[in-house]
Each structure stands twice: as C-alpha cells, then as structure tokens.
Amino acid sequence: MRLTIIGGGGFRVPLVHRALLTDEARSAPDPCTRVTLYDTDRVRAGVIASVLAGQADGVPGAPEVRVAASLDEAVRGADFVFCAVRVGGTAGRVRDERVPLRHGVLGQETTGAGGVLYGMRTVPVALGIADRVRELAPDAWLINFTNPAGLVTEAMATRLGHRVIGICDSPVGLVRRAARAAGADPERVGFDYLGLNHLGWLRTLTHQGSDLLPGLLADDAALATFEEGRLFGGEWLRALGALPNEYLHYYYFGRETRAAAGAADLTRGEFLAAQQEAFFAEAARDPGRAPELWERTRLEREETYGAEGRAASGGWQRDSRDLSGGGYERVALDLMAAIASDRRSRLVLNVRNGGTVPALPDDAVIETVCEVTAQGARPVPCLSPGPAELGLMLQLKAVERATVEAGATGSRRAALRALALHPLVDSPAVAARILDEHGGPGAGG
Q1: Mean pLDDT, to the nearest integer, of 100-111?
Q2: Kind and range of the H or E element at 216?
Q3: Cα torsion through 420, 423, 425, 427, rounded to 10
C-alpha cells in the first residue's frame, strides 16, 4: 500500500505515521510500504520527514518515507491520498479569527465566520487537488483531513464522488469518553451519531443490548468526569437527551464563548502560529532532535486545546487520557485497513447523505456512522434527527453550500450569503464588513 500525504509538512502528520508503525498496521495483509510527503513549504516537509525518521528508527518493516517535489509526483501511483492542507498557513488562520472578533462575532477555525472565511479560501485549492487525483490516480481513495472537513469533502466529492471520505477525531473522542464515564469498554460499545462535521450528536450508547446514555445523562457525578459533560452541564444535557459534539458549545453557549474568546490575550491561531514557528525553526537547526521537539510541542498543543470552551464553562484541565493522540489517525488507519482488506468496519465518517437524512439533498455530506468495505463507506440506517437538530443541520448546510459556491466561483453574493446566514453571525451588515476587511470573494464591491 502506498500512501501520499498532501500537506506533508503539517504538524499532525507524525500521528498518522506513528499509527502506521504499530504491530497491527505492520502485520496487516497489505501494510503501508511507502509514505510520500508533499508540501508547498519544503522546509517544513523536511522537518516532518526528520520527525518520521526518528519515529521509525529501529522499527522493522517501517514504510519508506520520501518527500515529493511536486503535487503530480506525489499523487501518481498512490493507493490512498490524505489531504491535510492549511491554505494560507497559520497566518491565514489568525486573520480568520481576528477579523470577526473585531466585529463582535466569534472567530474560530471551523465554526462561525472564521470557518466560512477559511472554507472559501480552501475550496479552490481542494478542487485542484481532487482534479489531479482524478487524473493521475483514479483508483486511489482520498481521505480528507482538511478543515472545515465537511464542506471541503463535499466540494471534493463533486470531482471524486464516493472515493473521497472525510474524517474527524471529535466523534470518536466523544464516544470514547462517554463510554468510559458510563463504565463500559470503548471498544465494545455500539452507538448512533448523526450531524454535520463539528455539529453532531451522540444519541445512543449501547452495551450488551442496553442503552447506557440515559443513565449517564442522569448521573451528574459521571458527567463531571469527561469533557463534554463539564462543557455542557447535566441540566442542559438532560434537556437535550443527547451528548453534543464539543463544537456545539459555540452554538449553545454562544454568549459565553464569545466573551471568553474576546478576553483571551491570544486567539488559538495566534498561539499555534507562535508555537509552530518556534518548533520548525529549532527542528530545522537541529534535525536530530526533531522527534523530541515535536512530541514536546504536541503535548503542549493538546493540553491547551479547547481553552475557550473550558474557560467559558468554569475552567478545568483536560484529562490525561485525551492527550496521547489516537483520534483521527486511528480513524484513518481503520478506514484504510477496511478498504484495503475488505474488512467490514463501522466508523463515524463524512460521506454523502444518500437519503440518510431525507430533508437534505442526497449529495450533501453528513457526519454519521458508516459501514466500510472495499467498496467504500456507506451510512447505516439511523434515528431521524429531532426538529432542533435538523433545524441547525439545514441552516449550516445552507452555509456550507454557499461557502463552496463562493470558493469555487469567487461570487460575492454567495460569500455574503454564507456569512450572513450563519447562526453565529447576527447581521448581514456585519457579514459585509467582515468580508470587506478580510478580503474574501468580491471584497470592497
């Protein structure tokens, strides 16, 4: 199996490589034999290659790692292509977050105005990548890590159809934490999860034929042991009757999260920009220490993840069990293994709706439990969303589709519609000012 990672200079790439070094991955029927990195920043790609070399040191059967000079070289001959790009780099993220905050609305990488701005900038690049994969590796599967994952996957699916699948670590993390809090083995629970990327709900959590979720929601002590329980609080969770994805804190507690973001000295993007600049500079000077420097930086990154939500919900530290990784790279490995070996698996993925939610178009990308085989990923039958959940899904899907249109065509009308229709942006006039200051499609006119 040959794997290409587009955005191979990305900070989280070593997590995927580390998963490929496990005994399970190396003993698979079709193990990964080659990892090709491609990034427009060759220095960053070289640093990440040094991290991977250190991780693989002494591991028998570790895949060969190489850095490609061009996108076409990287894609040609690949069996799986991971797309993990950040268009505009961390400087772009800083602008996506700061401009909305100056206008009194949330600035966040994937949610609210920040997510729309990031999506519009990313869509044309993602479409270009999809076109090259379709041309040079038509039998490859593209696994999209690029945020905002749902709308980027939907854009790429217009070129690649079912051969593009989006992944995210938030749902698997939620299931794992909820299972532990309910006293069950996370590897032995069943579950029903449905929504859009960063807008989903865990509706059942079953073990040995019983649904553990009602008991968990009724137990304030158990809820206090994991992140989503502390974020949302027992009273609100019992009112919902479900466990929301952590990103729904921006919607349900919008006033509090905006206040926390406005009070912070740095946005998340500003923190990561400074952190990553320091890491890449130091690792480039001393490649032999790159693995050690990366691990230290990764741990700090995980410890500070979600700081705004934690501040808005009283302030608390993340559980040490959530700091070791095992999120989206685990999903990626399971997805590749299921397709390559035709090993039937159930995973939460971003795929085309195909009638799962009748109110949404069949080609709209949703995030839900899928059955994966050599033929790809298909949603499994699930409970219908309630009116409140469906209402949010419909509104956000309209935003996502307008964002894709704006990114693909440069339409100011579509860009304004995407921003103004977002429930976290409360005025078309504010949306227009954000668009003009940020410099998005049709800015200034």
Answers
A1: 92
A2: helix 213-217
A3: 60
Q: What is the DSSP letter of 269?
A: H
User: What whole-number distance in Å separates Cα of residue 385 and Cα of residue 393?
Assistant: 9
Which DSSP category does 358 fall into?
Answer: T
**pLDDT tier at 27 (50, 70, 90 boundaries)?**
confident
CA distance 351 to 347: 11
**Residue 315 in contact with residue 156, Cβ under 8 Å?**
no
Residue 424: helix, strand or coil by DSSP?
coil
Strand partners, 87: none
Task: Report the pLDDT value the prediction gives residue 35, as an integer from 0 to 100.
Answer: 96
Alpha-carbon distances of 357 from 192, 266, 317, 382, 384, rounded to whole Å: 14, 39, 36, 9, 7
Give the HSE-up count for residue 16: Cα atoms under 13 Å, Cβ half-sphere.
37
Peptide linkage before 148 cis (omega within 30 of 0): yes
Q: pLDDT, tens digit, for every residue of 297-317? A: 988 888 876 656 556 666 545
Least confident interval from 12-21, 64-73, 385-394: 12-21
